[in-house]
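Input/output pair, single chain:
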Amino acid sequence: MKEKRIAIIGAGIGGMTAAVTLAQKDIQVSVFEQAPELSEVGAGITITPNATKGLIHLGLDQEMKKVGMAHTKQGVRHFKTGDMIVPLERGEKMLEKYGAYQFQAHRADVHNVLIDKFKLNHADSIYVDHQLTDLKEKADTVELIFSNGQMHEFDFVIGADGNRSAVRKIIIGDDDPKFAGYVAWRGLVPTKDLSKTDFDECGSSAFIAPGRVFARYLVRNSELYNYVAFLATDQWAEEGWSIPSEVDIVLDIFSDYNQQVKNIISATPPEELFKWGIFTREPVSKWSSDKVTLLGDAAHPIEPFMGQGASLAIEDGVVLGRIIETASSTKEIISRYESSRIERAHFVTEHSKKAGQRFTGSDPDKYSKEDHKNEEELGLFHYDPGSVIV
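Output:
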C-alpha cells in the first residue's frame, strides 16, 4: 500500500501520530483539520511507557525528554490528610523495567512535537479549516466533501476526529456519546504564585474522596501545576474542553480537601479554568467500512482514570501506520488493524471505567494497594506499538 494516498481527518495527537508514522514510511498522506489553526487545549497529558515507546519508534525520544517530566514519586492519597494510600514509583524505574519513561507534559507541547516532525518535509500536506461534511466510498477510492466546498479523493481514510467523530457517524451511524456520570474541571496554575507547602516529594498525585478525585502534576519544568478535578454526579454537563468555569465553584465542591489542594485551586487564573462532562460510548466490535477506519477517541472514547486516552491514540497511530506500509489491500489493513487493536482498546476502556468507580466510590480510609488495579498492574506498560506483531 506504499503507493496509495491516505487521508487523515483530525490533526490531534492520534491523527498526527498516524501522519508522522506514514510520512516516515514514504507513504503519501494528507491531514485535514476542521479548526482554523493547529492547536491543542491548555491542559496536561500523561504519556505512559507503552505510548512513549511508540514515540521512540518515530524518533521522538529526545524531543519528549525536553517537553515531558518523568516524576519519580507519584501516588494515590487521602483527600483530607494528604497521606499516601498507594505509593507509586515511576521515573527511572519505568525506563529500567519497560524500556521507556512515563512523561507528564503540557498537551500542546506534545502536539507540537508531532506537528513539527511532520512539517519538516510535509508542511503542505496539512489542511486547516476543512470540516468534513460527507464521504462517499467508490469502487476504488473515497471521496471527501468539506464544508468549504472542496472535494478530495483518496485510497484510504482514517477518522481521528474525536469522540463526536463525523467519520464515525457516517461509517457506523451509531448514537451520540452518553454522559458517563462525571463532571471535570481542568486548570493550569503558575507555580510561582504558590508557597513551599503547596509542593511535596510527589510530582504527581491523585487525592481521592467519596464522589470526587483531584489529580495534579507538575509540567513545563515545574513552571505549572496541571490539575483535573472530578465530581461524580447524575447532573448532566455539556461536553467540550473549552467551557469556562469559576474558581469559587470548584473550591466549594472540594472545600473539605487538604490545604495544598485548596491553595492550588485558589491560585487558578480565571482564564485557565474550564469545565466539561465526561462522555463515552459502548464498545463496538467493528471500527471500519471498506476503505475507512477510526482511531483514538473516534474509535474508543475512554474515561480518563488511568491516563490512557492519548496513549491509546498514539498506539493506534503507530500500529495502523505500520500495517498500511506492509498490507496489500484495504481489506487487509482493516482486518489486521482491528485484530490488533480492538481487544486491547476494550480491555483498557473497561478497566478505566472500573478505576473511576473505585476512586470515587470508596472510603479512602479503607482504600488499599489491593484495591488499586492500575495501568501498570494490568500489564499495559509492556506493550510496544513499534514492535508488536501486527
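The chain has a mean pLDDT of 95. Residues 5-68+101-176+281-356+376-382 form a domain with the FAD/NAD(P)-binding domain fold (CATH 3.50.50.60).
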